[in-house]
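User: What would this chain look like folded?
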Amino acid sequence: MADDKYTGQGGVVTPADDVIPLTVGDDSNDLPAVCKGFYCTADATLVIITKAGQTRTIAVAAHVVYPIRVSRLKATGTSLNSGSFVALY
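Assistant: Here's the prediction, encoded as C-alpha cells.
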C-alpha cells in the first residue's frame, strides 16, 4: 500500500491535499493508500486498522478531524453510512 507521500518533513501536521469520501467498510481490503487523517459526517463507532497494523474500535464525533493514519476501515463493527467516512490525503 502506498505511503511514501508522508515520509520526511511535514507528515500528518501538513494540510491535506485532497479529501475523498469512501464507501464504508471492507473487512478484506486496505484503502488505496494510508490516509493522513479522516473525519466522519455523523457520530459513529469505527473499526479501523492503523498504519501500525493494529485493529482499533473508536467512537468518533461528527465533523471532527482525527489525525490518525488509517490503512483499512472495516465493515464489521462500523456504524456509519456509505460515503460518511472522508479520508484526508
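The chain has one domain: 21-88. If you want, I can go into more detail on any region.
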